[in-house]
Amino acid sequence: MSSATLAPAPQPFAHYRGLGDAELDARIAAVRGRMGPRLVILGHHYQQDGVIAHADFQGDSYQLSKSAAGRDACEAIAFCGVHFMAETADILVNTPEKVAARGGRRVTVVLPDMAAGCSMADMAAIEQVEDAWADLGTVIDTADVTPVTYINSAASLKAFCGRHGGIVCTSSNARAVLDWAFARTRRVLFFPDQHLGRNTARKMGIPLDEMCVWNPHDPTLGGNARAQLEKSRVILWQGHCSVHAMFRPEHVDAFRANLPGVQILVHPECAMEVVDKADLTGSTSFILKTVAAAPPGSKWAIGTELHLVKRLEQNHPEQTIRFLSPTICMCATMYRIDLAHLCWSLEHLEACKPVNVIRVDDETARWAVTALERMLAVS
Ligand code: SF4
Asked: Which residue among 82, 193, 267, 284 is best mutated to probe the pocket of ligand 1, counting the most ligand atoms within 8 A of its Cβ?
């Protein structure tokens, strides 16, 4: 083996912090070259460009996990996203059936920076959820409630839904999942994004006075009167995405006043007041497809994460694409994954000394898969 193909000994993280982007790029590419198909790098749509350049797949969290699960030669995944996404990848690539088919070998999943969490997922801690379920049971029959969690949630919450007859949804299939849930029970408890839950339920014709918001920090029935809970068909967990919460109705008004012909395109994690004023609302995939299918000269103001909008702007110079907010709305936690963290984690992976391994315990994974499989059967 020539010296050019030798793997360097992995170093403490501080070493990588001191390297320039060109050297980090070269070292990441070298690991990829040496590991070949044994390594899969996944890059979420909201990830910064320098990291995306190294990704084997770019997509939303669910698409990415499915892509990795389909790669038989894969031994290790570096998930350039946030914590719950790496958990989902671990759950889907390491089901008991898949591990058995590999002769007992697990795929190692790493998150290059453990501080890359999701503020929305963190708003629904499993202890809060268990308490809320018990408190709800003092007012309504929880056998008549389907818990539904957005995929942007911890594995423990997905498992809670699996154990209680519930299901996972994405922003693409939330409507179909709620239809499934209402075919089984009269009520839904929707985690952790109140906006996706409210926007979807309203499109289904459920009036606002048949919804309530459960505040996990309010010990008195989540801040609800008993009568309101009894009347509610949709109980929305009080969580939100700190990125999409920054888009405001007045931003829509400003674009309509200043850019004639503009179409407003927003993600359903935005507040209802923004969605109500938008021309189109849909998932990340919907946003990408809608812009790709639009004729040259189309004008858009888009309400979703900054890196995705900037990439759309670069990829579609024939259209006018603007970011809906005057302030920067980017996923700051995902942004923590940079070239230094990626290089650090890859060189450790290659040396069989993985750092930041994401491993969901078997019991949690089993119930989370149950909830994910229910979703797959729906959509
Ligand atoms: S954009 Fe919002 S929901 Fe998505 S990972 Fe970041 S904080 Fe979480």
From this structure: 82
* pLDDT band per the 50, 70, 90 thresholds, residue 5: low
Report residue 317 as tokens: 């110079």
From 1.10.760.10, 3.40.50.720, 3.40.50.10800, 3.40.50.300, which CATH number describes the 3-116+335-361 domain?
3.40.50.10800
Across the range 322-351, mean pLDDT stands at 95
Q: Is the pTM of this model over 0.85?
A: yes
Report whether 377 contacts 177 (CB < 8 A).
no
Tens-place pLDDT, residues 163-183: 999 999 999 999 999 999 999
pLDDT of residue 72 exceeding 90, the answer is no
Closest Cα to atom 8, ligand 1: which residue?
A: 118
What CATH fold (topology level) applies to the domain 120-242? Answer: Rossmann fold (3.40.50)
**Measuring CA to CA, how many Å separate 135 from each of 60, 121, 126, 172, 219?**
34, 21, 14, 31, 9
- Percentage of the chain beyond pLDDT 90 is 93
Q: What is the domain partition of the chain in residue ranges?
A: 3-116+335-361, 120-242, 244-323
Q: Mean pLDDT, to the nearest integer, of 20-48?
A: 97
Residue nearest to atom 2 of ligand 1 (CA): 241
Residues with CB under 6 A from ligand 1: 46, 82, 118-120, 152, 241-243, 305, 331, 333-334
